[in-house]
Amino acid sequence: MVREDLINSAVSFLQDPSVAGAPVDQRIAFLRSKNLTQEEIDLALQRAGSEPPSASPQQSQVQPYQRPPPQSYSQNAYWQPPPQAPPELPRRDWRDWFIMATVVGGLGFGAYTVAKRYIYPLIAPPTPPQLEQDKAAVDASFEKAFALLDQLATDTQDLKSSELARTEKLDTALSDVESVIGQLKDASRRRDDEGRRLNDEIRGLKDMIPQAMESQKKSADQRLIDLATEMKSLKTLINNRMSAPAPAPRSPNPSAPTFNPATGSGAAAANSTSATDPTPAEPTPTPAAETKPAVPDRSSTSSPYGRSMNGRAAIPAWQLAANKKNQEAKEKSGTVETPVENATA
């Protein structure tokens, strides 16, 4: 089915004087671009009085019909100027081929020069002089490397020796420090032991002081009691002596020594106080030819209970000796003398 409106528009387009001079192929291509079929194009060409170009069967087979994209066909599009046909390719003569050969030869010579100067030295094997030069450079590098290795070995040996010396010094210092620490530990241990011993002794002394004071108090009380008993016995003895009559004189016996009555009474008093002092007063013998008065002089009597110059009773010699012995014994034992003992002395 043909479209008459499109065919009429194509006929008016083909009859346009500006389009009549264009080749038939271009006009047919334009009509095909306007979405006309081959049948419509043939009808338009027949009506316009133009013969359609004879197409060979091979050409029709090679160029199948391609439907252009749908476009709105307007009548005004036919009045536009037709597109210009591409210009024909210029024909090449010998000059073109000469220019092309010259350009290609220049490019090839340039590539050859570049390859020979820059690429060939990179891929070409080295020459004997280059080998000798490279060998000398390698030998110099090896000598330098060996010198550096020798220097490194020397430096390493020096560092090793210095490190060994420093290690020995450190070991010596550490041994000294350990010995000092051991001595300090021993001293601290001895000090701790001494402190514990002193604490034990102080604790023992603390416990012994009340006992010693108690025993000393008991001893002092006992001595005071003994002293009071002795004083009572002395008082009784003195009263008895003063109240007793003078004895009658007797003839001296040349075969037996005579005793002083005062000395005998002193010996009796000493025997009565033997509980406090174990040393008794020995009697003083007198020669038989010597005669004694009936009443002996009190100032010349040898009784230990004699009186002093002011009339008071003096401390007997035996009591002084006993007191001295007690003081020496206390000094040896390390006990402290109490004020009670000083009073009794």
Automatic annotation (TrEMBL):
One protein family per Pfam: Pex14_N
GO biological process: protein import into peroxisome matrix, docking
Biased composition (Low complexity): 50-65, 256-279, 287-296
GO molecular function: signaling receptor binding
Xref: InterPro entries: PEX14, Pex14_N, WH-like_DNA-bd_sf
Top-level division of the source organism's lineage: Eukaryota
Compositional bias of kind Basic and acidic residues: 325-334
Subcellular locations according to the entry: Peroxisome membrane
Domain Peroxisome membrane anchor protein Pex14p N-terminal residue range list: 3-47
Region: Disordered, residue numbers: 44-86, 242-345
One GO CC annotation: peroxisomal importomer complex
Predominant location: membrane
Family to which the UniProt record says this protein belongs: Belongs to the peroxin-14 family.
Function of the protein: Component of the PEX13-PEX14 docking complex, a translocon channel that specifically mediates the import of peroxisomal cargo proteins bound to PEX5 receptor. The PEX13-PEX14 docking complex forms a large import pore which can be opened to a diameter of about 9 nm. Mechanistically, PEX5 receptor along with cargo proteins associates with the PEX14 subunit of the PEX13-PEX14 docking complex in the cytosol, leading to the insertion of the receptor into the organelle membrane with the concomitant translocation of the cargo into the peroxisome matrix.
Name by which UniProt lists this protein: Peroxisomal membrane protein PEX14
Species the sequence originates in: Aureobasidium subglaciale (strain EXF-2481)
